[in-house]
């Protein structure tokens, strides 16, 4: 499997706080990767490290086979759209296209102008007077017309209304099909990932919780519901992701490639949202378990 991003023990520390910890990943090429997690999970930090805007505090990262902050950093081969869909309020749409052409040697002027026309953007209009959806589409146009091999998107649709968000993601999927792009799309909205992505990374509390092909992950995770039992009694092949219990019943989310043969279990599949929430819940429980009890503090 060829990769567009490879990291090993990657970490970024701000003063005493680790925004990203021990991140070891291989992001496959030719895929649309959903980077999912709550606000503050480390998604933006990871993308900023990948694009070379930050330097690691620990470990290493390679993008398209090169160090993002080195002399041979692959800046011309990577497109980036930040959280605030960066545009310059005082510049017109046409000014943005001229700036893109000046900064990027592989600039596709025809594609940029065609996208602007298809989106109904007035080339003379200043970006500051565009709607949020229009600014997002202008930022995407700049990223795509650069003709990158890898496009990094940091929650570009978070502030958009549902219609503008759907149009943005539809345009993104069409561009992926036309340009053979690799994409990493950061979002805290599972619906966006479900609509556009085929590979998933769940990031919670600065750490990667799970990563893999979405269909394979959904196929290897199950919900088991049945009589209450201790997790230690489950087969070794069933990795417990989360567990909840009542007086009489246990419910587990497990990761397993083996069939569940115990007839006492009611077995059901997970949705993508179920899967993401299970790993987010596991980390929340781990935090709670790590806190000292009141008795211990006395």
From TrEMBL:
Residue ranges constituting the ABC transporter domain according to the UniProt record: 5-230
Keywords: ATP-binding, Nucleotide-binding, Transport
The UniProt record lists the keyword ATP-binding: yes
Stretch forming the signal peptide: none
CDD domains: ABC_DR_subfamily_A
PROSITE patterns xrefs: ABC_TRANSPORTER_2 (PS50893)
Record InterPro entries: AAA+_ATPase, ABC_transporter-like_ATP-bd, ABC_Transporter_VariousFunc, P-loop_NTPase
Protein's name according to its UniProt entry: ATP-binding cassette domain-containing protein
């Amino acid at each position: 499997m060829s990769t567009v991003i490879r990291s090993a023990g990657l970490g970024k520390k701000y003063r005493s706080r680790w925004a990203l910890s021990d991140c070891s990943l291989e992001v496959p090429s030719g895929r649309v990767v959903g980077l999912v997690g709550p606000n503050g999970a480390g998604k933006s930090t990871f993308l900023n490290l990948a694009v070379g805007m930050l330097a690691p505090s620990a470990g290493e990262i390679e993008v398209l086979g090169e160090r993002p902050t080195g002399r041979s950093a692959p800046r011309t081969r990577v497109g980036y759209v930040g959280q605030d869909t960066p545009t310059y309020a005082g510049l017109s749409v046409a000014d943005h296209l001229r700036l893109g052409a000046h900064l990027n040697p592989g600039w596709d002027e025809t594609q940029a102008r065609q996208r602007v026309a298809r989106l109904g953007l007035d080339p003379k209009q200043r970006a500051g007077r565009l709607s949020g959806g229009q600014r997002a589409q202008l930022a995407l146009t700049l990223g795509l017309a650069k003709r990158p091999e890898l496009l990094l998107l940091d929650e570009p649709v978070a502030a958009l209304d549902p219609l503008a968000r759907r149009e943005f993601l539809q345009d993104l999927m069409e561009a992926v099909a036309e340009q053979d792009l690799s994409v990493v799309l950061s979002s805290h909205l599972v619906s966006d990932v479900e609509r556009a992505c085929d590979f998933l990374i769940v990031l919670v509390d600065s750490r990667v919780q799970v990563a893999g092909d979405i269909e394979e992950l959904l196929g290897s995770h199950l919900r088991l519901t049945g009589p209450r039992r201790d997790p230690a009694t489950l087969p070794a092949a069933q990795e417990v992701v989360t567990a909840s219990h009542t007086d009489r019943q246990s419910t587990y989310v497990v990761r397993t490639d083996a069939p569940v043969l115990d007839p006492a279990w009611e077995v059901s599949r997970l949705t993508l949202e179920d899967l993401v929430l299970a790993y987010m819940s596991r980390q929340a429980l781990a935090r709670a378990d790590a806190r000292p009890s009141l008795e211990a503090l006395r």
